Amino acid sequence: MLLYIHIPFCDSKCSYCAFNSYVDKFHLKSSYMQALYKQLSFELDRFEATDNSIETVFIGGGTPSTVSPKLYEPIFDLIRPYLTQDAEITSEANPNSATREWQQGMKDLGVNRLSFGVQSFNAAKLKLLNRAHTPQMAKEAITHAREIGFENISLDLIYATLGDTKELLENDLREAFSLPINHLSAYALTIEEGTAFETKPQMAKEHLDLTQWIFQNIQEHRFEQYEISNFGSYRSKHNLGYWKYKDYIGAGAGAVGKKDNERFYPSCDIECYINNPIKMRVETLSEEDARLEKIFLGFRSCIGVSKEVLSDEEKVRASVLIDEKKLLLREGVLYNPDYLLADELALFLTS
């Protein structure tokens, strides 16, 4: 079982961000963390959690580094008995707020992996994206993380942004690989509803040849691609758990949880969530819904798709793709060698 904890507070709202996050709710931090504690207590019972049942924890946002380690203490005290001995515990962090003191405080609580929202090492691009840090802040934050003792460190980069050139992206990758990281996430900029970029669709400029070049460049640094946006000499256990379709608790305003074929959606509104953190919408997935999700997720990652998941007609179509080397079959599992074709392959099989 996995655990995701959502922190909706941010220093600034990035121009591309569609996540449930706010820059004007900092006065609610303490009461929000208390509500998280209440929901987690409820979820641990609902998911029938026992000793060693939580394999991974991922604290995302928003910006988890805007919340003091002191406020996280009750949460960690609550979940600690349920963690496996080798649990991967990740927190996202922004370079401007992930001070050395914050990082040390989180490490003392048990966090053993940090994921930094860097996005670029180009100052002009960071300003365009409305990021609150400078390239130097990013370098210092990641350097501090290694000095403190974090062995597993990741950073995010964004590409396909208006103004991106091969030279700019090459510099971003060069700077990234000069730092003590063992994981990198590379995301193409997408224009989402409700974001500052919604009325500026020209801001996203993805070109297939440039995307392929980026992926190849990353892998030349011995960071293996194990999902459409993720690379590393270390693979995130939390990410892999989602793609393996494991159950996960989703705690926080706007988080999502899954148990068997049910999904749980707490309120996205922070005030409503604080008032009643265990009130949530429940969605029941049909067996067919779950089957299709497994196919789409499997082809986007190194997990692959068991041939047994497919219908007889889909198995015939899969054979065509195997003959064309669009899919690889090993020990009853179909693997996609080109993640950029993931959705196209899934649609071909299932439509």
From TrEMBL:
GO terms for cellular component: cytoplasm. It is found in: Cytoplasm. It comes from the Bacteria. Keywords: 4Fe-4S, Chaperone, Cytoplasm, Heme, Iron, Iron-sulfur, Metal-binding, S-adenosyl-L-methionine. Residues 1-227 form the Radical SAM core domain. SMART domains: Elp3 (SM00729). One of its GO terms (biological process) is porphyrin-containing compound biosynthetic process. CDD domains: Radical_SAM. SUPFAM superfamilies: Radical SAM enzymes (SSF102114). GO terms for molecular function: 4 iron, 4 sulfur cluster binding; coproporphyrinogen oxidase activity; metal ion binding. Belongs to the anaerobic coproporphyrinogen-III oxidase family. HemW subfamily. Probably acts as a heme chaperone, transferring heme to an unknown acceptor. Binds one molecule of heme per monomer, possibly covalently. Binds 1 [4Fe-4S] cluster. The cluster is coordinated with 3 cysteines and an exchangeable S-adenosyl-L-methionine. This is Heme chaperone HemW. It comes from Sulfurimonas paralvinellae.
